[in-house]
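Section 3.1: Structural characterization of target chains.
Under the original work plan, the team committed to producing a structural model for every single-chain target entering the pipeline before any wet-lab resources were allocated. The record below documents one such target. The sequence was received from the expression subgroup and is listed exactly as submitted; it comprises 202 residues.
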Amino acid sequence: MKDKQIVAAFDFDGTITTKDTFVEFIRFAKGTSSFLCGFLLFSPLLIAYKLKLYPNWKVKQHLFSFFFKGMNLHDFEQYCRAFCRQSMHLIRSQAISSIQKHIEKGDSVVIISASIENWVRPFAECLGISSTLCTQLEIDQESCLTGRFASANCYGAEKVRRLLQLYPHREGYYLVAYGDSKGDKELLNFADEEYYRKFQIH
């Protein structure tokens, strides 16, 4: 470990934050009434997902498309930045402390999240993190959201695959991973040092 660069990989929702930002962002951008109506409309799919009869990413994409399909990318980005400005209270103080320690030591810090890249990035910038590996959106020729994802949902094994795209020479670095859910299992197992629902004490 002494001679290796340290890469600290943080999950976002539930690890850095106290809540799921996919849900919180929709509520912020569309208002509580529209949010509740939309989730009620898709309740059969949500129930099917809970019963493991329907995949996570499909439910997520259906919901995202319902609320944001056709929105201009510039307008969407404005919502994302405003959401960050008004939601920094969602960031765990312990996460801030751990991230700062890694940055001060010169470690490479990356957020790997199933949440949408566009709203995770402003939070990352506020935390001093330059690298984000998240679910990406498909944009049409008129710079509007199609409602579909341009990448695989960054969840489970996809987190490891995306990490290896950014840091391909696994033998050359020491990986410290932070997560809080089953979607982080593969990343945590892949790490040299893992923190499940906790942060470094030293």
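The chain is about 45% helix and 20% strand.
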